[in-house]
Design brief:
Length: 405
């Protein structure tokens, strides 16, 4: 399977794609509503920011304890829980008179549930599409997320001109209900991959140790987390670097470059060549920002942001390798750990970028973050060879605690 048209010919993939789009609309609507209500109630920019973007911090903590649920619960059931939790939370958010402290408790509920099953969706995607089509499918879903984030926040902002924040919560709850029904009717039930025996907390900790302790999978996680996170540290400096409108152009250029990379690598690059592009794409992600050490004009930096963001597409073949080098019984947790670690390193990168900008100019700080990203990519290359797509090159990390062929 090599085209999006063929991909959308799969009924279950269409269900997942539609759900992905509608979920992004729901997230945008509920985020804007909660941010608006929180600011009206508290007048605090910090609490408002936490209301809109602090949820992933809850997922980060919960995933360290509950991530093994991604493999021990039937996939369709897990996805239904992921839809039911925000539906209930958004419906309760629409109740008049809820104090802002209570709204933060409600905000945490869907993020805890999402942390439990954060890897499930990607395992289902891999099951639904034919062998070798995961990257094409993931690129289509990535494009949906990028596009619907823009559409969702735009529509949400316009809706606030006519609707109250509580009305937006109801819109989000209805969208979640539509997704719940869509999944229940359109997705085939499948058995859980893992055994589900023992404490979920102990299983989560054991498999995380295996994945991060393996000389095969650890370099994969480093490649997917650290270079990306350090470049996010450069992107976090767009506002102090660009001031006014230039920062907006930088964010737009970076988003466009990322979507182009997903489109080209996912749709047009053959499988055998895709894996060979991991190194060049990792370098492309950071190397253009080295120009900022020369303090170029802002227009050049916009081009740099666009070209560099194409390199994010390296994560697509890296995810293929992760699936290939882990046992089926832990695929959900392996992908969930990827998502959790990515959030951590994006936060670390933003912090490091901010600290660097207190010592040097924002442009030079961005260049230094890029230099660090390139250095990590080069240093990690020997370890990354252990996961190369050669059946004899490496063992597979299993759920039992030992490698398997």
């Amino acid at each position: 399977m090599s085209t999006y048209r063929q991909l959308f010919g799969i009924p279950e993939f269409r269900v997942l794609f539609v759900n992905r789009c509608v979920v992004m609309l729901s997230v945008a609507a509920s985020g804007l509503a909660l941010g608006t209500i929180t600011y009206e109630a508290t007048g605090s920019p910090v609490l408002t920011a936490m209301a809109m973007f602090g949820g992933p911090l809850v997922s980060l903590v919960a995933s360290q304890l509950l991530l093994a649920s991604s493999d021990s619960v039937r996939p369709r059931t897990a996805l239904l829980w992921q839809m039911a939790a925000p539906m209930v939370a958004n419906a309760l958010q629409a109740v008049p008179g809820v104090p802002w402290q209570g709204r933060f408790v409600l905000l945490a509920i869907p993020y805890v549930v999402n942390a439990m099953f954060s890897g499930t969706q990607w395992v289902v995607v891999r099951d639904v599409v034919p062998e070798g089509s995961y990257v094409l499918a993931r690129s289509a879903l990535n494009l949906a997320v990028g596009g619907m984030q823009v559409v969702g926040y735009g529509l949400g902002g316009l809706a606030l001109l006519w609707l109250s924040p509580r009305d937006l919560f109801l819109v989000a709850a209805v969208a979640d209900a539509v997704c719940l029904v869509n999944l229940r009717l359109g997705l085939r039930d499948r058995p859980a991959r893992g055994t589900g025996g023992g404490s979920v907390v102990r299983r989560t900790a054991r498999v995380n140790r295996l994945l991060l302790g393996s000389v095969v999978t650890r370099p994969l996680y480093v490649a997917m987390w650290v270079p990306n996170g350090l470049v996010v540290g450069a992107e976090a400096l767009y506002v102090p670097y660009g001031h006014g409108s230039t920062a907006g152009y930088l964010f737009a250029a970076a988003a466009a470059g990322m979507m182009l990379g997903d489109l080209v690598v996912g749709r047009f690059v053959p499988h055998h060549l895709r894996d060979r592009l991991i190194g060049p794409l990792r370098i492309t992600l950071a190397a253009p920002y080295l120009l900022l050490l020369l303090s170029p004009p802002a227009g050049v930096t916009v081009v740099v942001a666009f070209v560099a963001s194409v390199g994010y597409a390296a994560s697509l073949p890296l995810q293929e390798r992760l699936f290939a080098r882990t046992d089926d019984a832990v695929h959900g947790q392996a992908m969930g750990l990827y998502g959790t670690g990515l959030m951590v390193w994006q936060a670390i990168g933003a912090l490091l970028g901010g600290l660097a900008a207190t010592r040097v100019s924002p442009a030079h700080a961005m260049g230094l973050m890029a230099l660090a990203s390139v250095a990590v990519t080069v240093a990690n290359t020997p370890g990354l060879r252990r996961s190369a797509p050669d059946p004899a090159a490496a063992d597979e990390v299993s759920a039992s605690g030992s490698p398997s062929s």
